[in-house]
Write a structure and sequence with these properties.
This protein is an all-alpha fold. It is 51% helix and 0% strand. The protein has helices at 11-16, 38-59, 70-80, 87-99. The radius of gyration is 21 Å and the shape is extended. It starts with 10 loop residues before the first helix and ends with a helix.
Length: 101
Amino acid sequence: MAVAAVTTKPLDTQLAMPFHPPLPKPLQKKRLPAGRPREWYVSHNRRLKAMRLAIALLDTGVYQPASASNHRIRTTAEHLGIHPPSDTTCRMVRTLIRYGR
């Protein structure tokens, strides 16, 4: 009868290993195209903020738009270091969560 030997790593090397892989570096920002109306830049930045917030909420387990209240979205923005979003941006976050499935 063959017996398998169980080998494990020493405890000190197990603690040195990271629990998660390192985060990827953020993409380098590019300048926005010049010559567009101001409203285009406002809506573009609003969409970017809404996408960042929607991704953060999905990562924390908020999958239903009904559970993403304005307060919860603004609290998430505070944790991310983003200025508090307006009511319009909060609505856009809920829309992204709803239709992003």
